[in-house]
Give the backbone structure.
Amino acid sequence: MKTIIMLCAAILVAGCTSSGGPEVSPPAQTQAAEHEADLAAALSGRIAGPPQDCVSEADLGGNKSYGRDVILFSGRTDDVVYVNRPTSGCPSLDFGRAIKIKTPAARLCRGDIAIVFDPVSGVEFGSCSLGEFTPYRRAR
């Protein structure tokens, strides 16, 4: 009887181990990889410059999020865009929501607080601290 129990236990353990096949990524990792791929496509043909602590609002157009970890700010012209990676990510930013700066000024700077909100209802979902602004210019 003891042998049968040990044999069943061995079969159960063998069934739980990896078969060496491809591992399935958790949904969050898959989404993050998709967001990074979309960002890479948006930056295609551009060259990164040195990160900046601040950017003049006059130099910025709109912005688009790539998941909760990246905000791409467009420039006033198509020559330059700015990538910002908030220091701790922005909660719920990747659900069609937008950001507004808590203390509007003539410049956006690293450390400024961005509030995540729904542009239709105005409901706020959290906030985050902006990181450095990395300019990406079109390759010539």
Observations:
- The first helix runs from residue 2 to 16.
